[in-house]
Write a structure and sequence with these properties.
Elements (H helix, E strand, L loop, with lengths): L1 H41 L4 H29 L1 H21 L3 H10 L12 H12 L2 H25 L2 H4 L7 H24 L20 H19 L3 H12 L3 H29 L1 H21 L3 H15 L2 H11 L6 H28 L5 H21 L5 H6 L3
Helix pairs in contact: 1-5, 1-6, 1-8, 1-10, 2-3, 2-4, 2-15, 3-5, 3-8, 5-15, 6-11, 6-14, 9-15, 9-16, 11-12, 11-13, 11-14, 12-13, 12-14, 12-16
């Protein structure tokens, strides 16, 4: 009985640390994703160079995620998360210090700067595997929803904070200096994140930990999911948060403060959608929840690209925000559910890396379209490809159910 109570306390502590670390990281990623294009434009770089830097960042994230997948079994998730937190500290301070584009490009590639506000990151597969280890089938989707909720609420607040450089200007603080201070804050968040990761339970490394992460009986399922998730990520790369902010800056001359307020509202709606997604998935299933919330959000994005007024555009983007992220906890839970326990680390890595690579290509293409004055095309391409992804996911996986759904239907 005492051992069970101790185990329960350790589980709660581990999950709570992961929730808190996700919240801090998404808070930082959120204001950085909005600040990044404004900061680079203030330094004199073109929209195309903004897109290229976003691509470099996502490519670097893919490389880090591959390394995490190969080394995870050998060193454990806790150790790799501690290293990643140190890299976050170095990235924030380096971005605040250097102004040369080539140097910033290298830092973006090797560091943790995230133009997609948390969707693609070396932290994500490590945290997913660690969280799945803390939960059972019945609680898995609920725990992933709480994990996503913590991040989304923090990201919404981070969006508001992105307007700080403009709000501080009346006090005499230089706008560029204020932006640099925000990158220092991002680095300091990495310090706190490291403290949280250090509180994760130490776990013994498996005897076969020297072997690289590999897939077994679930290989075919994981490869299919990875291919589909890559299509989704490639589509999403056309409208990562930094580029969506750039589009609003250029088309409607939105200020940093106004953009921060908008992204706060969008982030809040996304956050509220996560517990709704967990409840909905219990009724209609994980795959159906992913698909039938995603398609309307893509339609709203495409309508926003063609809408003539700022009010209409923002309203449609808020509708999209309320629906587009409901697949996040359900997708994470589904991947962890349809593979064996021993394959979870590899599955998290194999489904994350192709997403990172695919999403790294499209920001540069979007930047080129912006530079050529085809500003609506990235949004239209994103919406169209995401609908194709949803239909393919439904066709391929509607009959492959996680354990809790099979038990509910008596399968």
């Amino acid at each position: 009985m005492q051992e069970a109570a101790k185990s329960s306390r350790r589980t709660l502590s581990g999950a709570s640390c992961l929730y808190a670390a996700r919240a801090l990281r998404d808070f930082g990623d959120s204001f950085v994703a909005i600040l990044l294009p404004a900061y680079l434009l203030a330094l004199g770089f073109t929209p195309f160079k903004v897109g290229v830097l976003a691509t470099a960042s996502l490519l670097g994230s893919a490389g880090l995620t591959i390394a995490a997948g190969l080394l995870g079994a050998r060193f454990g998730y806790r150790q790799l998360l501690l290293i990643a937190a140190c890299l976050m500290v170095a990235t924030g301070f380096a971005f605040a210090t250097f102004h040369d584009y080539a140097v910033l490009l290298a830092i973006a590639f090797a560091g943790t700067i995230n133009p997609s506000a948390g969707n693609v990151s070396v932290f994500v597969p490590l945290e997913h595997a660690a969280l799945a280890r803390e939960s059972g089938d019945a609680d898995r989707t609920r725990m992933f929803a709480r994990y996503s909720l913590a991040g989304a609420l923090a990201a919404a607040v981070g969006s508001l904070v992105a307007g700080a450089p403009e709000l501080l200007q009346p006090l005499g603080l230089d706008r560029l200096a204020a932006m640099q201070a925000m990158f220092v804050l991002y680095g300091l968040l990495g310090v706190i994140g490291r403290v949280l990761y250090a509180r994760l339970p130490r776990r013994a490394v498996a005897p076969d930990a020297h072997a690289p992460a590999a897939l077994g009986p679930s290989r075919k399922i994981v490869f299919k999911l990875a291919a589909l998730f890559s299509l989704d990520a490639f589509a999403g790369g056309f409208v990562v948060q930094s580029l969506l902010a750039l589009w609003l800056f250029q088309r409607f001359h939105l200020s940093l403060a106004e953009a921060g307020v908008f992204f706060f509202g969008a982030g809040l709606l996304a956050a509220l959608s996560y517990p709704v997604a967990a409840r909905l998935s219990r009724r209609i299933g994980l795959v159906n929840t992913m698909v039938f919330t995603h398609i309307p959000s893509s339609i709203a994005l495409m309508l926003a690209a063609l809408a003539p007024t700022l009010t209409t555009v923002l309203a449609l983007l808020l509708v999209r925000a309320a629906l587009s992220q409901m697949d996040v906890p359900t997708r994470s839970s589904y991947v962890m559910a349809v593979v064996t326990t021993s394959e979870r680390a590899a599955a998290a890595s194999f489904t994350s890396v192709p997403r990172s690579l695919a999403s790294a290509v499209s920001p540069a293409l979007a930047g080129a379209l912006f530079a050529a004055s085809y500003s609506a095309w990235p949004l239209l391409i994103c919406g169209t490809l995401k609908i194709v992804y949803d239909l393919l996911l439904l066709a391929q996986f509607r009959h492959i159910r996680p354990p809790e759904e099979r038990r509910l239907r008596g399968v």
